Amino acid sequence: GPSGAGKSTLIKMLTREESPSSGRILVADRDIFQLRERELPFYRRKVGVIFQDFKLLSKKTVYENVAFALEVAGVLPKVIKKRVNEMLTLVGLENRANALSEALSGGEKQRVSIARALIHEPKLLIADEPTGNLDPVNSWEIVELLFKINKQGTIVLLATHDKEIVDAIHKRVISMKDGKVVDD
């Protein structure tokens, strides 16, 4: 859908940052607004989110940005090292682990964001305009990476207003306008 269609609001509801004004939101047949407060961190670890503006920690390295999500969850350093290295290999940044995030290109920043979103092995990966700040070449590389992640068994929900990407991916497309589904 176009800007203002409700894509980002839907994503905020899926992550329980915002509440729906009516209806329910079911994820894996469970109303996520019935989850207790103490259940939320576990739910959110099963939902990875990639943002258009990357949301990286600018003074940290690529490795530190990806490891951070596991560190705050109390994961052992040995496990963190293994998982971070796996994710950096998946997104093609294994050779950039020590680079500061502020020194990366837009495409590289988005790959770090993807690695961080995948670090908890989510069942659902939500990508909110992940190509919005990228040039066409990097945009297609990110879309191809999302395809690869999907083929490995993760559900990918891609929110975009880029009709060229939508037309090329040949997957289920749900169109939104003014906060409502207008086509499926």
Structure, described:
This protein has 184 residues and is an alpha/beta fold. 40% of the residues lie in helices and 14% in strands. It is built from seven helices and seven strands. It has a three-stranded parallel beta sheet with strand order 3-4-5, with helices on both faces. Strand 6 and strand 7 (180-183) form a beta hairpin. The longest helix is centred in the last third of the chain and has 16 residues, at 136-151. It starts with 6 loop residues before the first helix and ends with a strand. 29% of the residues are buried.
Order of helices and strands: HEEHEHHHEHEHEE
Global Rg: 17 Å
β-strand amount: 5-15%
**Count of DSSP H/I helices:** 7
Name the poorly predicted regions.
none
Oligomer: single chain
Main sheet properties: 3 strands, parallel
Helix content: 40-55%
